[in-house]
Amino acid sequence: MSSTDTLLLSRLAEAVFWTGRYLERAECTARLVQAHTELFLDLPRSVGLTFVPLLALTGSEDVFTELGGAPTEENVVAHLVAEPSNPSSIVASLTAARDNMRTTRQLFPRESWESINLLHLWATAQAEECTNRTVRTGWLTAVSREVQQLTGLLAGAMSHDETYVFLRLGRHLERADMTTRVLDVRATTLLAVRDDALRPYADVQWVSVLRSLSAYQMYRRKVHARVQGPEVLRFLLQDEQFPRSVRHCLTQIGTALPDLPRHEVPLATSVDALEHVTTAEVRALAWDGLHEFVDDLQGRLAAIHDAVDETWFRPEDSTPADAVDGQPLDDTAAAGATV
């Protein structure tokens, strides 16, 4: 195979990988904004809850600050829903997922391309109205539902070959990253609550943490007790069966990687991250060291991403493709999944 063929196929794999990441990012962000809006309405003003924490959860603080808007509910929601210069916004994520699938659509079921295209057109047209809370609820629910249906379509109608492996890698890396972000920002704040006047509302906020990850009902099935911070941490970090727990995501990554050639370095990196999670004393972290633990874990997730990138997307005899936030946007990507 020529070096040119290798470059094109590497770009193809990268586009599929980022399709998985951006679809997951759109769904996760929609769920976060929805859960936070509900929490904002449930809690009294004395708690002092604002929409600013959503910027930290999604890694959007720097872009928001550069744009210079006041951190009001309307501005933060607009930034997370439709701001084109924010790569973590829902519309920007759907746009990136659509563009990456467009360049690789010969590898996907036709219905999946039609689905992402229609979702992108509808979401873009309706996004500006989301500053209105009534419209926001329906729009966010629809986005989450449509992305979940698309994920199910890909799982049920797409060959589970090397292409699908890259899709899975992107999805589970993004999912694990989002779960750690939620725990870092939400849990660190909640565990530090010492004000007796605010303590009764902590349970409500822990429920919101679970709902922001679609984890509330599964948590209640697994933990037959009221919602408590340390148990929520253990469930979202270490549960083997819940699909959005960090342990489950890392297990899925470790299961997928051996199906690819030259997987030794990425697999070793994922095994290291998995061991870091499974051996953690979560109950102790609930009282001290959670932020440092999650910070370290996010670094290990970034190392998995870098290992995947260097192994399959950056061949030694090629130059990196033009990209935006890691996503290749070149229509010249050739068909095929050999890497």
Give a description of the structure:
By secondary structure, this protein is an all-alpha fold. The protein has one domain (3-328). It is built from 15 helices and two strands. It has a two-stranded antiparallel ribbon with strand order 1-2. α5 runs antiparallel to α6 and α13 runs antiparallel to α15 (290-313). It starts with a helix and ends in an 11-residue tail after the last strand.
Q: How much beta, percentage-wise? A: under 5%
Q: What class do helices, strands and sheet pairing give?
A: mainly alpha
The main pleated sheet reads as: 2 strands, antiparallel
Helix content: 55-70%
Number of strands: 2
Given the C-alpha coordinates, what overall shape results? globular
- What are the low-pLDDT stretches, counting only 5+ consecutive residues below 50? 1-8, 317-324, 329-337
How many domains? The number is 1
- The H-and-E topology, N to C, reads as HHHHHHHHHHHHHHHEE
Distance between the termini: 11 Å
Q: What is the overall pLDDT average?
A: 87
Radius of gyration: 20 Å
Order of strands in the sheet with most strands: 1-2
Number of helical regions: 15
Distinctive features:
339 residues, mainly alpha, two-stranded antiparallel ribbon, globular, disordered N terminus, disordered C terminus
Could you outline the blueprint of secondary structure elements for this entry?
Elements: H1 3-42, H2 53-57, H3 61-67, H4 73-82, H5 90-103, H6 110-126, H7 133-157, H8 162-191, H9 202-211, H10 216-222, H11 229-238, H12 246-256, H13 264-278, H14 282-285, H15 290-313, E1 323-324, E2 327-328
Antiparallel strand pairs: 1-2
Helix pairs in contact: 1-5, 1-7, 1-8, 1-9, 5-6, 6-7, 8-9, 8-11, 8-12, 8-15, 12-13, 13-15
